[in-house]
Amino acid sequence: MSLIWQASAGRPLKGEITVPGDKSVSHRAIMLGAIAEGVTRVSGFLEGEDTLATARIFQQLGVRIETPSPSERIIHGVGLHGLKASNEDLDCGNAGTAMRLLTGLLAGQNFRSKLVGDASLSKRPMKRVIEPLSLMGASLQSEPNGLPPLIINSKNTLQGIDYKTEVASAQVKSAILLAGLYAKGETTVYEPHPTRDYTEKMLAAFGWPIEFRPGHARLSGGHRLQAKDIQVPADFSSAAFFIVAATLIPGSDLLIKSVGMNPRRTGLLATLQLMGADIQKQNSHEQAGEPVADLRVKHVVLTGIEVPESIVPDMIDEFPALFVAAAFAKGETRVSGAAELRVKESDRIAVMSQALRELGAQIEETPDGAIIQGGNLHGGEADSHGDHRIAMSLAIAGQQASGVVQINDCDNVATSFPGFLELSKSVGFELHIK
Questions:
Q1: Which residues contact residue 25 at a Cβ distance below 8 angstroms, ignoring those fewer than 6 apart?
Q2: Which helix (H) or strand (E) holds 405?
Q3: CATH code of the domain in which 138 resides
Q4: Cα-based torsion angle of the residue sequence 116, 86, 139, 150 in order, rounded to the nearest 10 degrees
Q5: Rg (CA), the chain
Q6: Of 92, 94, 214, 329, which has fewest CB within 10 angstroms of its CB?
Q7: What is the pTM of this model?
Q8: Which residue among 231, 263, 279 closes a domain?
Q9: Nearest to residue 363, comparing CAs of 328, 313, 408?
Q10: Residues 214, 256: one domain?
Q11: Is residue 192 located within the same domain as residue 241?
């Protein structure tokens, strides 16, 4: 039986918290540390199921990874060509980032690999990485329509390409760039909208010559990665749930420490501020080349807006939380240009719309977004469909609903936010396992 939560009206959120390390940075620290020369030390590593799956895979591929204490990793890099074949399938679990990035990285190896995932990941589209990697010379096999499992055949001779991605996806861009490390000549990626640049920044930090700006990245093969100590900032996507909750719950005044503020990641912050949110940045600084700040969030009544499409790619993981904010705002909120939400861990437009309708919200789905009428929510039963971000967003909704909200299928929260239940209760959430 799957995990069920019950959420109901909590108290004002007070004090200060630190959320777990950034998932995107944690994935990439393991990957680049593994193929670098020397020893990479990572602090603030996210102890989530997704990132643990990435670490296990590299151990299968012959990389020694030590865990001296929770949230720390010591990675003994084997160099660009030092990975070894695994006799077993490489299980990515629920991690789409791991599967897509590893497809690019493993395309450059001289051995065969098979990437598998859980039931949810096995429904997610991989054709978007298969096509450009095939153009580079990779030999890949998948299930019909480009679905996992993925088989990366051995002895691919990769050639750099100029590629324009059809969708704005940091995962697709990163897969191509990681394959480009092993390719002859230059690899260039152009995007329809700028996406997160974690891969580019970390490649530069590890010493690989790379040129990048919003919507464009270029590198050439034939260089080396040098080990680098990485301090992982707190994950903005995890902080997002507390940002929205503190904004919505009267009397809240919450400080969230050392949050990663990469501008390609913080679209929710900009959107909430357009809606009238009171969010102050404090103690701004840098960690591992990434901007970081403490965020002080106070309650305010939000006003519905038309979300600028230019912001959408910078908040693609935060839309479930935004839907909750919009459901309690004054007036109407319109979202468009977010079709990518339909191919995440779930169809997030459909699942969030249905879940919030069960709680009394007025939401009209559109092909690439939704129209949300703000108001109040009542108690009821809602299903997260195994999507960790939807489960946590519905937990926020329960804090402001007029009755008890039952949230079904919450097991996957541990993929990105281990300890969410305990941390949220410590600052004021009323949230329990049924």
A1: 198, 202, 230, 232, 233, 260, 288, 290
A2: strand 405-408
A3: 3.65.10.10
A4: 0
A5: 21
A6: 214
A7: 0.87
A8: 231
A9: 328
A10: no
A11: no
Per-residue model confidence as pLDDT tens digits over 374-390: 999 999 999 999 899 99
Its domain, for residue 172, covers 23-231
pLDDT one-digit tens code per residue, 116-135: 999 989 998 899 999 999 99
387 included as an active-site residue: no
Tell me: do 178 and 240 sit in the same domain. Answer: no
Q: Are 4 and 408 in contact (CB under 8 A)?
A: yes
Pair 366, 372: CB distance under 8 Å: no
Which has the closest alpha carbon to 32: 21, 44, 40? 40
Report the DSSP beta bridge partners of residue 88: none
Q: Answer yes or no: are the C-beta atoms of 71 and 98 closer than 8 Å.
A: no
Q: Are residues 159 and 252 in the same domain?
A: no
If we measure between CA atoms, which residue out of 80, 26, 85 comes closest to residue 57? 85
Q: How far apart are CA 82 and CA 84, in angstroms?
A: 6
- CA gap 320, 325 in Å, rounded: 9
Q: Mean pLDDT of all residues in the chain?
A: 94
- 214 and 356 share a domain? no
